[in-house]
């Protein structure tokens, strides 16, 4: 009999393999490239891309980094990431098929920047606290975590949460800004070092973003969260 932890891992791995990887490979690079300027990368930046998927962030940052380590637990994603990087002649990168916590334990204070792009919504609170605590330990003092995720306050996410619309099966824990900040605080980040911003959606829904400025109802049109936390 499989124990509970293994069962969850096997189910999650199944959701993030095969056809899911193929669908992810068709997503436009612009969805990540538009986020890169918010990371303030330089040629000296050592960056870790956690839940890296097919390595889209590596493709989006150009040559503006010292080293890049991508980490994902899905062998299919790591294979896709390595294939893409080889085709495009990327340099100064390594992909690791590993549990994030295990990887971070081997890399204390190793990175200037950590990224988790469209990842936190895939994990429940307890696991998220464990993972983000590990990520914090992998950052040098003063290093920064950048987190991008759907916003539970967005009207479409509210509709999914209430059962009106169908949620993606991989999205098991969509959170709002307060919930995301609370999670990071539990993981050891200082509240005063956490900054949360609202950013547009990456698809046609981005045209609704100006409505997020409306008084009273603006939060319903705030599609995505960008959270920065300093270690």
SSE pattern, N- to C-terminal: HHHEHEHEHEHEHHEE
How much beta, percentage-wise?
Answer: 15-25%
State the CATH class: Alpha Beta
Strand line-up of the largest beta sheet? 3-2-1-4-5-7-6
Estimated structural class: alpha/beta
Q: Stretches where pLDDT falls below 50 for ≥5 residues?
A: 1-7
Q: Label the overall shape.
A: globular
> How many individual helices?
9
* Largest beta-sheet details: 7 strands, mixed
Organism: Croceibacterium selenioxidans
GO molecular function: methyltransferase activity
InterPro entries: Methyltransf_25, SAM-dependent_MTases_sf
Keywords: Methyltransferase, Transferase
Please explain how this structure is put together.
The protein has 231 residues and is of the alpha/beta class. It has one domain: Vaccinia Virus protein VP39 (Rossmann fold, 3-Layer(aba) Sandwich), CATH 3.40.50. It has helices spanning 4-15, 19-25, 30-33, 56-60, 75-87, 100-105, 125-138, 155-161, 177-186; strands spanning 46-50, 67-72, 93-97, 111-117, 139-150, 194-199, 224-230. The chain has a seven-stranded mixed sheet with strand order 3-2-1-4-5-7-6, with helices on both faces. The chain is globular and about 45 Å long.
Summary of the model, kept short:
By secondary structure, this protein is of the alpha/beta class. The chain has helices at residues 4-15, 19-25, 30-33, 56-60, 75-87, 100-105, 125-138, 155-161, 177-186; strands spanning 46-50, 67-72, 93-97, 111-117, 139-150, 194-199, 224-230.
